[in-house]
Design goal:
170 residues; mainly alpha; Four Helix Bundle (Hemerythrin (Met), subunit A); three-stranded mixed β-sheet; 6 helices; metal ion binding; metal-binding; DinB; DinB/YfiT-like
């Protein structure tokens, strides 16, 4: 039952992420909100990459993120980032479908170069926080980047403010 709910949420939110990535104009990938932050292309690439972490999180008891070997295309190439997203979504979906309900209560640990980053934590808690909520956080940033760059923001949970006022509804 929990897995069914996670998979349903996953599928719904993949579509919302896809809408946001599709809204990124190719000529805006270098846009930065601040001098010290990521570019729009780097943020999009990070979002696409998070989906590659599902397999290691859901199917391994210990995930060494330093050994993940995530391939990342040039962040200025939004088409390549969208393709990376689609590839990683397929792997994430397969991982979600392969896990058993009882596995969600088993402890999971993240390491990097032999150092513990996340101590043993129930896999379900990690899936919610490190995967799902982490994505939602960065998607919120992406919405803000799109608006600041002057790009149209798609509605994710209904029409955007701009859409509802453009059509004369309020």
């Amino acid at each position: 039952m929990i897995l069914e709910a996670l998979l349903g949420e996953f599928e719904h939110e993949v579509n919302n992420t896809r809408k946001l990535l599709a809204a990124i104009p190719a000529d805006k990938t270098g846009f930065k909100v601040t001098d010290f932050g990521w570019t729009l292309g780097q943020l999009a690439q990070h979002i696409a990459t998070i989906y590659s972490w599902y397999a290691g999180t859901l199917t391994q008891d210990e995930y060494d993120i330093s050994a993940a070997g995530d391939h990342r295309p040039d962040p200025a190439d939004i088409a390549a980032t969208r393709a990376l997203f689609e590839q990683n979504v397929e792997k994430a979906r397969a991982a979600l479908k392969s896990v058993q309900e009882e596995d969600l209560l088993r402890p999971w640990t993240m390491t990097s170069h032999g150092r513990t980053i996340v101590p043993p934590t129930p896999r379900l808690q990690v899936a919610r926080g490190f995967l799902f909520n982490h994505l939602y956080h960065h998607r919120g940033e992406l919405v803000m980047y799109l608006r600041a760059a002057g790009a149209r923001v798609p509605g994710l949970y209904g029409p955007t403010y701009e859409d509802s006022h453009r059509k004369g509804t309020s």
